[in-house]
Amino acid sequence: MDTQLLLLAALLLLPLAALLVAKQRGTRGGKNGARLPPGLPLLGNLLLLRRSSSDVEALLRRLVARHGPVVSLRVGSTLSIFIADHRLAHAALVGSGASLADRPAVTRALLGESDNTISRSSYGPVWRLLRRNLVAETLHPSRVRLFAPARAWVRRALAETLGREAEEAQARARAPPPVMEAFRHAMFCLLVLMCFGGRLDEPAVRAIAAAQHAWLMFMAQNANVFAFWPALTRILLRGRLQKGLDARRRQKELFVPLIEARRERKKQLDSPGGGGGASAAAPDKETTFEHSYVDTLLDIRLPDEGNRALTDDEMANLCSEFLTAGTDTTSTALQWIMAELVKNPAIQEKLYSEIKATCGDEQEEVGEEDTHRMPYLKAVVLEGLRRHPPAHFLLAHKAAEDIEVGGYLIPKGATVNFTVAEMGWDEREWDRPMDFVPERFLPGGDGEGVDVTGSREIKMMPFGVGRRICAGLGIAMLHLEYFVANLVREFEWKEVPGEKVDFTETREFTTVMKKPLRARLVRRTTG
Fold first, then answer.
1. Given this model, what pLDDT does residue 8 score?
2. Rounded distance, CA 142 to CA 367, Å?
């Protein structure tokens, strides 16, 4: 019903919109007479409101095949430009980096709240401050090492869960449950601990996970709809908007007390006689970490805003971003990689041989330092990210000024996106691109020495490229390598009889397996 109202409103406004578009096309041109990229007529773009993300992806493939690697779609007042060529993507994101480093105002347009987060902030001093804080104070290798005990705890809990589920399924002669829920919960527990500095009890973690999921689903299902003339959609879709406000309020009800607890702890440690001494931390040292992401947020001051501290609402939004960025993306990538290892037992066995040769049988786990000595492990993870990137598109960029890419004008204010998955599947760059071949990242392969940051060239870009590249690239690779290695060392992953691995995709917050992975896990013997 909501979409029908939008279509009706759009048809009523169509003559005016067409006039404005025609005026823009007639008056705006590049220095060399560049025109806007080709795409659907305005009326055709209205159909996008009724399409799923997978349908839009298929539509873009057809447009690119017909018009070339730079195409446009217009939904309401927003011009969206898509770039499907890796060389043009490099020219846009690296060559014209500052011009495309901005973001459209999303949460501000929807909910009227601050966009002061790393992923959503406009390109400027606030964004630089927030990103620098995250990278230096939480994601720097010296800080990441502080959370090694947390990763070990989560690894043990995940292995116990998977082992128990496998044994119960075997005892009852039934298929084991999908592994994705266990993956997601494990990653979420780890990120909650890193964010808030403590091991919360299970009900608290589940409550936060439910609040996060409600918010993510709201954004995934509504961001494009609300982008259709925001002033109009905020009026027509008041009921839907209220659901988003409710989801955001629930997050803050859960996050703010946890933020306040770290604030009080910081006051105690900073008080005379506290001094960071053992007396303040000893009672809860088994469940409370000395460092957390929230601790760093409490220290931030915004120089351009009177040197004020972040508000609790702003910190809650940053915590939500932190949990989102490292949970679904990592658990999704982990599921795709393990699915490929189930489907390709020879690859799994080759990886297991490397793990055994590196770690032997005496160690309790594959340590984080051990993963640095496993080139085939890194190749398996990179191939998983190339073949099954969790995000098929980046978060939208916004042009800060008129620029020209591939002979076309990208006007100031247009949103720009990139076909991440298609670039990783480009048969001009990759041999047998739809096959899972980790060896391509070893010496002599077509992915040898690939630069996932895209600074030199772009062949794959699962973390984005340029100034807005994912700040968590390093820790994401660490988590994937660490958990893949330990899961393969702990269990042999086999196909469940009658449950063939199905690589059909579906879009949720990330691009996941439409039929979630079920695997028969056989605990490996040591010695």
1. 46
2. 16
Got the DSSP string for 18-75? HHHHHHHHHH---TT--BPPPB--HHHHHGGGG--HHHHHHHHHHHHHHH-SEEEEEE
| CB 143 within 8 Å of CB 293 | no
Q: State the DSSP H helix or E strand holding residue 87, giving kind and residue range, or none if neither.
A: helix 86-90
Q: In this structure, what are the phi and psi dihedrals at residue 195, rounded to the nearest 5 degrees?
A: -75, -50
Distance, CA of 265 to chain centre: 31
| 3-state secondary structure (DSSP) of residue 406 | coil
Cα three-residue angle 470-73-127, rounded to 5 degrees: 30
Give the position of tokens 């823009």.
24
Q: Tell me if 446 sits within 8 A of 430, measured CB to CB.
A: yes
Range of the domain at 257: 2-523
Phi, psi (rounded to 5 degrees) for 443: -50, 130
Binding-site residues for heme, in ranges, read: 470
* CB burial of residue 330 (10 Å; 0-12, 13-18, 19+): buried
Strands 491-495 and 415-418 come out as unpaired
What domain count does the chain have?
1
CATH number of the domain that residue 375 is part of: 1.10.630.10
Q: Which residues are annotated as a binding site?
A: 470
**How many angstroms separate the first and last alpha carbons of the chain?**
63
pLDDT at residue 45, rounded to an integer: 53
Q: Which of 146, 118, 147, 144 is nearest to 130 (CA)?
A: 118
Q: What is the mean pLDDT of each run of 10 residues along the chain (527 residues)?
A: 49 45 48 79 52 70 93 80 95 92 75 79 93 96 92 96 95 94 96 94 94 86 66 72 88 96 91 55 57 96 92 95 93 98 98 95 90 97 98 92 94 94 95 97 94 93 95 96 98 94 91 96 79
Q: For tokens 């000893």, what's the residue?
A: 282
What is the DSSP code string of 181-200? HHHHHHHHHHHHHHHHSB--
CB 399 within 8 A of CB 100: yes
